Amino acid sequence: MAAITLAELADKLGAELRGDGSVEVHSLAGTAKAGEGQITFLSDSKYRKMLAECKASAVMLRAGDAEYFAGNALIVNDPYVCYARVAQLLDSTPAAASDIAPSAFIDPTAVLGQNVSIGHNAVIEAGVRLGDNVQIGAGCFIGKNAEIGANTKLWANVTIYHNVVLGEQCLVQSSTVIGADGFGYANEKGEWVKIPQLGTVRIGNRVEIGACTTIDRGALDDTIIEDNVIIDNQMQIAHNVQIGYGTAMAGGTIVAGSTKIGKYCIIGGASVLNGHIEIADGVTITGMGMVMRSIEEKGMFSSGIPLQPNREWRKTAARVMKIDEMNKRLKAVEKQLTEKGE
């Protein structure tokens, strides 16, 4: 396992080192469990009492918490971000593929950059372009004329349909499908007539997509995901959706067709966004949000009923079913009061 000295870490993080810079750390651990050779972090001052018993070789913390830890420390502005940076430096995740497996099929017209790796039973079809250092995991399918940018990694069994464009430094987890047909049909006297989906999917740089997510190709125009977007597991992004720079979307979310999501939005898990609406930049939608109309201003939005004991929930549900009746009665009372001049 790779190791790094605290002095080297301080230099890479722009941190103030307090203690012995020659000490080496090889892994990260939680504050309560970290031991010799490990580094931990404290991002919330309300847990600073844990530092007294912390046995880590070093702790990343803010200046205001430094006096509560007697050992080696890296003083930083944002311990959580530094935790992420150190996790990258000490990452032991294996490559999705090494070299080019003999069982992989690569069409002679495909263009491969330098140091490309392709796993067993992967299929690379005609006209595909793979940038330098691309990793294609076992069992992946890359359709005709697709393009994948440099340093992008696909884990096993990812499917990239024809003409899809995936940018640089992206990460796609297993069993995700990018570029499947959008849900487009016309109805002729009760019979469904399929509308071929003639657009594609264009994904920017530094985009991460979780496992078992589906991103549909556009009907006429393209489905577009801009740079620095993170998308969780088991999500459905329909045809012609646009997702702006830096947006984060948690697992189980469904986005219907032609919806446009702005920059730096945060979409909580299991949310549902109606089609043909627009979400402004900087909007946060809390978990299980049901968004039926456009949101035109930055802010936090919620919907749904919080969990209650079953007996209370049944009462709430029964009252909700009577809201229309109660509204009519309230209006009648207001009318009577108005007529009486009260």
From TrEMBL:
<comment type="pathway">
    <text>Bacterial outer membrane biogenesis; LPS lipid A biosynthesis.</text>
</comment>
<dbReference type="GO" id="GO:0009245">
    <property type="term" value="P:lipid A biosynthetic process"/>
</dbReference>
<keyword id="KW-0677">Repeat</keyword>
<dbReference type="Pfam" id="PF04613">
    <property type="entry name" value="LpxD"/>
</dbReference>
<comment type="subunit">
    <text>Homotrimer.</text>
</comment>
<keyword id="KW-0012">Acyltransferase</keyword>
<keyword id="KW-0443">Lipid metabolism</keyword>
<dbReference type="InterPro" id="IPR007691">
    <property type="entry name" value="LpxD"/>
</dbReference>
<dbReference type="InterPro" id="IPR011004">
    <property type="entry name" value="Trimer_LpxA-like_sf"/>
</dbReference>
<protein>
    <recommendedName>
        <fullName>UDP-3-O-acylglucosamine N-acyltransferase</fullName>
        <ecNumber>2.3.1.191</ecNumber>
    </recommendedName>
</protein>
<keyword id="KW-0808">Transferase</keyword>
<dbReference type="InterPro" id="IPR020573">
    <property type="entry name" value="UDP_GlcNAc_AcTrfase_non-rep"/>
</dbReference>
<dbReference type="InterPro" id="IPR001451">
    <property type="entry name" value="Hexapep"/>
</dbReference>
<feature type="active site" description="Proton acceptor">
    <location>
        <position position="239"/>
    </location>
</feature>
<keyword id="KW-0441">Lipid A biosynthesis</keyword>
<dbReference type="Pfam" id="PF00132">
    <property type="entry name" value="Hexapep"/>
</dbReference>
<dbReference type="GO" id="GO:0016410">
    <property type="term" value="F:N-acyltransferase activity"/>
</dbReference>
<comment type="function">
    <text>Catalyzes the N-acylation of UDP-3-O-acylglucosamine using 3-hydroxyacyl-ACP as the acyl donor. Is involved in the biosynthesis of lipid A, a phosphorylated glycolipid that anchors the lipopolysaccharide to the outer membrane of the cell.</text>
</comment>
<dbReference type="InterPro" id="IPR018357">
    <property type="entry name" value="Hexapep_transf_CS"/>
</dbReference>
<comment type="similarity">
    <text>Belongs to the transferase hexapeptide repeat family. LpxD subfamily.</text>
</comment>
<feature type="domain" description="UDP-3-O-[3-hydroxymyristoyl] glucosamine N-acyltransferase non-repeat region">
    <location>
        <begin position="23"/>
        <end position="89"/>
    </location>
</feature>
<keyword id="KW-0444">Lipid biosynthesis</keyword>
<dbReference type="GO" id="GO:0103118">
    <property type="term" value="F:UDP-3-O-[(3R)-3-hydroxyacyl]-glucosamine N-acyltransferase activity"/>
</dbReference>
<dbReference type="GO" id="GO:0016020">
    <property type="term" value="C:membrane"/>
</dbReference>
